[in-house]
Amino acid sequence: MPSLHANTGMQQIVDFILELDKLKGVTRKVRPLGLDRYENSAEHSWQIAMLAASLAPFAEPAIDINRVIAMLLVHDIGEIDTGDTMVFAESGWDERKAAEQIAVERIFGVLPEPQSAMFLALWREFDEGKSAEARFAHAADRAMPVLLNLANNGQSWRENGISHERVVGRIGPPIQAGCPAMWKYLETRLEEARRQGWFGA
Amino acid sequence: MPSLHANTGMQQIVDFILELDKLKGVTRKVRPLGLDRYENSAEHSWQIAMLAASLAPFAEPAIDINRVIAMLLVHDIGEIDTGDTMVFAESGWDERKAAEQIAVERIFGVLPEPQSAMFLALWREFDEGKSAEARFAHAADRAMPVLLNLANNGQSWRENGISHERVVGRIGPPIQAGCPAMWKYLETRLEEARRQGWFGA
Predict the structure, then answer these.
(1) What CATH number is given for B4-195 in this structure?
(2) Who among B14, B17, B43 is closest to A43 (CB)?
(3) Does the beta-carbon distance from A9 to B185 stay under 8 Å?
(4) Percent of chain B at pLDDT exceeding 90
(5) Predicted ipTM > 0.90
(6) Domain ranges for chain B
(7) Does this model's pTM top 0.90?
């Protein structure tokens, strides 16, 4: 009865894409410029995919920018179950990663193959952070909230008591490792921001 | 003085990505499931990129799914200047397209080359809608609000007085042209929705 199977997988894809709608309700700590609300993880995922694409000329020649973009589109999907945790959280990082792993197995598991395994592999590659593509993706992901904070007079740093030292110590190494030109730019801007008093104590 | 130019283009990329932040404030007519607000065009762009990636096994073999995803990430950026217009608007479509063209030339013009020309070419390919990639991208873009409406008991169709006939007439041909399996699925679901009374008069 092949006609019964003509749309095999379509309902699963629909179930998956509607499940993803929940990422629009996961809020982060930065406000979009000029808006009186917090950013959500869905629009953030779009913006960092655009940032990575815009930074492509700064990527090592061997980097597959399409895989970077795909990783960035899926990297926060586990937050549907776990919520967003600020990168400056001091503890609970391992527990959070374990919970996110369970979450993405559930969510990508809604899909048929090969899509389910493909998205899970992208998520894991980002999570491990070892490939050149994953390092470039991490640099875009870490740089974006810094760029928004620099344009927002340090809004989320001040609201959450984050110091200049903590920002530089936490985001400097991954951005330097993934996109040295971006770190060179940010280092100067962050030093200016420190002089302006845009950090927490 | 080469060192002065070491970050050539970085400030332009930063200016561009902060300009893109405005797309988070462009609202559409559908509400995310379970949220008491309208969807914005940034999170929509993320979701349709994920829909296209999830539908990849339904694409013709020659389709470059990465170009589809890139097109979907940039296709709504002109709305930063023009706002969103519902696909069911009866008139003003040509004027709107001309205004969007001017908008994307301004916005992508913030970037250095080759990024500026690359994004503009992607936007134009989507706008023209002729390549197999553009047709597949249009199918994902048109299908997504229908899927949300079907999950929302026809929320935006009822709020905006959109009939079953108008939905089928406007979105059927582009979805059929770009992703026939998706249209086959939606045709049945839309007929069920009509019987449920989920459309406007």
Answers:
(1) 1.10.3210.10
(2) B43
(3) no
(4) 88
(5) yes
(6) 4-195
(7) yes
